[in-house]
Amino acid sequence: MVTASADSTTKTQGDNLRLTCTAESNPPPSTFKWYKSDGNIADVSSNGLLDISNIARNQGGIYRCEANTTLVPTNGSSITRSESQTINISVLCKYNYI
């Protein structure tokens, strides 16, 4: 089972954002991949964290964390299993008044 840090979150542009993805599996996941809603990979890590510094408005949207676990049976080929979870990020405009 894959769990993201929240279902959704709201940030103001310029804030820092940390998303956390965890998975319960044995063996533990070998990689976590974060995808943005456009299908591009936002990050690949072994710890499930996605850090975005100084977030911009165009970085808002739906992100998907995918946990990949590779099983290596004693007889046969390795098998990779994947599970994913989504999180919606809203980024509010930060106005500077003079």
Explain how this protein is built.
- The chain has 98 residues and is mostly beta strands.
- The protein has a single domain, classed as Immunoglobulin-like.
- 0% of the residues lie in helices and 56% in strands.
- It contains no helices and 8 strands.
- The strands form 2 sheets. It has a 5-stranded mixed beta sheet with strand order 2-8-7-4-5, with no helix packed on it. A 3-stranded antiparallel beta sheet has the order 1-3-6, with no helix packed on it.
- The chain is elongated.
- The N and C termini lie far apart (49 Å).
Which structural traits does this protein have?
mainly beta, three-stranded antiparallel beta sheet, Ig-like domain-containing protein, Immunoglobulin-like, Ig-like_dom, about 0% helix
Q: Layout of SSEs?
A:
Elements: E1 2-4, E2 8-12, E3 17-23, E4 31-36, E5 41-45, E6 49-52, E7 61-71, E8 79-92
Parallel strand pairs: 2-8
Antiparallel strand pairs: 1-3, 3-6, 4-5, 4-7, 7-8
CATH domain fold name: Immunoglobulin-like
How many domains make up the coordinates?
1
- What level of helicity do the residues show? under 10%
The tally of beta strands, per DSSP, is 8
Structural class: mainly beta
Q: Please give the CATH architecture.
A: Sandwich
Brief characterization of the structure:
The protein has strands at 2-4, 8-12, 17-23, 31-36, 41-45, 49-52, 61-71, 79-92. The chain has 98 residues and is mostly beta strands.
